[in-house]
Design a protein that fits this description.
This protein is α/β, with parallel strands linked by helices. The chain is built from eleven helices and ten strands. It has three domains: 68 residues, no CATH class; 60 residues, no CATH class; 172 residues, 3-Layer(aba) Sandwich (Rossmann fold).
Length: 372
Amino acid sequence: MSNPSKYVLDSIKQDQGRFQRIIKGKIKNQLNHIISEQQLIGRVGSKMVSIPLPKIEIPKFIFGSPSSGVGQGSGQVGQGVGNTKQQASGAGQAGNLPGKHLMEVDVDIDELTEILADQLELPRLKPKASGIADSQSKKYSSIAPTGPNSLRHFKRTFKRALKREISMGTYNPDDPLIIPIKRDFRYRHPKVTSRPNTNAVVIYMMDISGSMGGEQKNIVRTEVFWLDLWIEKHYQHVKKRYIVHDSSAKEATKDEFFHLKESGGTLISSAYKLCLEMMTTDYPEDEWNVYCFHFSDGDNWSQEDTDFCIDLMRKSLLPRVNLFGYGQVESRYGSGQFYRELQKYSLPEVVCSKIEDRNAIVSSIKSFFEKP
């Protein structure tokens, strides 16, 4: 074998690749549970997230005879272990089934988003407008004869020096000392590419009236996390704004959005009017891609206000947005009437979903971004 260390490294890489494929398979099989798990949101970092997965087999060496050791062979209830004195007999039999062990694996958040997209067959979002400024990215994909020492390409430099000495007849294989000179030096050179910035704003609205309880808001929080991931994957810059409403609406911070205590009645138009004011003032149509999501249990103060909401959406809101999503969270106190009204009018830019419980989050996300 010419290079045993290379063979070992290749074998390790193959094993690592196989293990990663096993992890991906486990994640795909348990995607619905992972998405609906609220603890995931609390642990997520900027790049990696830890996901507990059961029954991941890690290859390992086992020393000693398999027929010996604690827990092997037959025994009586209450029998002592080793040289200890016999203990009093127990009340039941010891179990003979393996326990359910969890292993936490680190997964890149972008990779997890791709798994979500593949499983739900989510389409790639298409920005309808571009921002004013262009963004530039550098990729060191070429070689140049000049550059700073920090970018010197040692392998290319050595090869140039070796070629020079061989061509000049000064290379001695018995004493292979290669000393590069200035003309041998090669440097990594950046290739600059420009692309227009695509800006997006996501405006989240949530009903915090008395019929929206803590569990409903936790469901919304989990779904908003995954909606954010999917939108951020397609835009360089994403802004987020939050509106809460009962009979009146106000802008909130992200923390307030999920934790303000519910109270009061419901006037949905108050949120839509504030949303339109934000869009008109801060996000011009030719520069921003706008995504709106409204979460409620479907109660509204009156049919007149519902009719006003539909008219406001059709004339002012929908012409400005890429997508308007309405998610109706199941509540024992909510009538769900607003969902039926939106379905009756069949507005093409509005996507509605019912979220009965945490297990419905996956289908809700899919309905918001489903391929036409």
